[in-house]
Amino acid sequence: MTIGIILGSAFASDRPLGLELVEERHVTSHGEVTLHRAIDRDVVIVFRHGMPHRWLPNQIPYRAHARALADAGVTSLVVTSSVGVLDAGVPLHEPLIVDDVLMLENRLPDGSACTMFDVPSDSQGHLVLDDGLCSRLLARQIEAIAEAAQAPIAKHVLFAYAQGPRTKTTAENRVLRQLGANVNSMSVGPELVLANELEIATAALVIGHKYSVPDVPVAEDIADTLELGRRGFERVLRRLVDELRPVPFANRIHRFRR
Fold first, then answer.
1. Which of 28, 29, 95, 190 is the most exposed, having the fewest neighbouring CB atoms within 10 Å of its CB?
2. Which residues pair with 208 in a beta bridge?
3. What is each CA distance from 73 to 35, 37, 128, 170, 192, in whole angstroms?
4. Is the Cα dihedral 171, 176, 182, 187 positive or negative?
């Protein structure tokens, strides 16, 4: 059973976390994508924006990534992202675990439904969230590993998915905060939904790289904030590669009998 990790904009190196990787090309019904398998470890990495970075958030081949991960034997997945922080009480550049997701429209950036079941098939069904989009068992493991790595999880947060590629307006950020969201980004949401539909236990580990709060200034250039986020991720992710173990899928797909 393989662990999957999705890396975002903060990681532009073809040897992230000091790992040696080999490319795996996967041809899926939703397109061809390249995964990267770690040598000597049962870990597969997805560079969300491609390697080198070439896809804006609205161009990411979410379905192809999800199907390729399942085809590669991934049974537990960690989705990472540098996020905007909507809550001034959430620190920047420290690891955060997503407890729940606010995704007001279950849609991909192209406007289609966010689902692997885009055409009728025997595998289709309703994703029933008994455990939630974020696996509690996987989150507990991540929290324990982060503590041992002396990079403890700073907070558990509610994540809001907001489609890109433009940034949010002040009014939009204010509304998301009023709905209870602590952080947001232009990815993560679709990855959690699609992986769960493929019965992959999934957790989200994020780091705030800037405040998206009215009256809280953004002090650094975005490239600088992403670099600080990458440093915040590295210690935890390196230990996860070595120590994280797959967990059972705790949601279910309700399929109708024929």
1. 29
2. 83
3. 12, 11, 22, 42, 17
4. negative
Distance CA 36, CA 171 (A): 39
User: Tokens 């999957």 label which residue?
Assistant: 4
- What does the CA dihedral 112, 253, 244, 230 come to, rounded to 10 degrees? 20
**Distance in angstroms (rounded) separating the CA atoms of residues 106 and 113:** 6
Could you give the CA distance from residue 38 to residue 24 in angstroms, rounded to a whole number?
Answer: 11
Task: Output the 3-class SS for the chain.
Answer: CEEEEEECCCCCCCCHHHCCEEEEEEEECCEEEEEEEECCCCEEEEECCCCCCCCCHHHCCHHHHHHHHHHCCEEEEEEEEEEEECCCCCCCCCEEEEEEEECCCCECCCCCECCCCCCCCCCCCEEECCCCCCCHHHHHHHHHHHHHCCCCCCEEEEEEECCCCCCCCHHHHHHHHHCCCCEEECCCHHHHHHHHHCCCEEEEEEEEEEECCCCCCCCCCHHHHHHHHHHHHHHHHHHHHHHCCCCCCCCEEECCCC
Contact present, 155 and 90 (Cβ < 8 Å) = yes
Q: Which of 73, 71, 4, 1 has its CA nearest to residue 44?
A: 4
pTM: 0.94
Express each pLDDT in 104-144 by its tens digit. 999 999 999 999 999 999 999 999 999 999 999 999 999 99
Q: Which amino acid is at 212?
A: S
